[in-house]
Design a protein that fits this description.
about 280 residues; mainly alpha; 2 domains; three-stranded antiparallel sheet; 8 helices; 3 strands; Orphan protein
Amino acid sequence: MMLFKKLPIAICFGLTLSFSSGSAFAGEENDAASFGEQILDKAKDKFISFAGGQLSSLLIDAIFGSSAPSYVNLSQESLQAIQDRVRIELVDTAEFEYFAELESIQLSMQYFNDTAANGTPDIAVLGSLLTDSDGLITHHALNSQFNDKYYYMADTLALAASLNLSIYVERHLQGFITQNAVRARANLLANRLESLLTAKKQADLPLRENCDMITSPYDQYYEEACQLVDPHGNIQAAVTLGHTNNPWIAQDMEEWEIDKELAERRYYADKFSEIEGVITKLRNF
């Protein structure tokens, strides 16, 4: 991927993005996917209640209104967190374009939210939202032939997929499509997201244990320094085990095994679990 550091394109998109090797944003890698899960919970509730005969709008919910968190900020924070740990700049022209389109969709959803709250939902805007959100699912930033680190957009895609399905649910609530059409779209989105998640796992797993023996100058004692490291060289856990005159060595080694397991669980949860949660919700729609 070509590194993208020029300012003009960010200005022309109306965005203020400033990715660097340091932490520019305070969010977590999984924040975008986590918010996507919240959106899907709302969508599922409306989908079920409509099937039970309760007429309502999904996009009238506050989660799609002006008080909702910025979709672009959530996506920026996700990519920044990933960029910090893999030590590769991930933002190029395609990502800037993606964020600009994501911001545009949020503004349109806020407008539709206002019209729905007023009792006069703007159906024309709903149609354009469908087209625009479809563009986020097929965007070239998610294409391996265009972007060799496309899989690091998985968290952002989890959010975009949730938005896309919400628009499908709204189209169903407004009488344009059937329940089966919504479920078919949910399954398509799950498949698309799962392909990115699989590639992300291949890049970020497995964690490996590295151990080195440390001896004193006169061989009076020796220790074993162990680290659990991810594929990018980040230490997830570490321990120094004293082997000389240490009656607790067996217990220390057992505790190290427990620490490694806990570190592996935290790592997996931080990098993959929220995306898996979105996939599960899509499959069970």
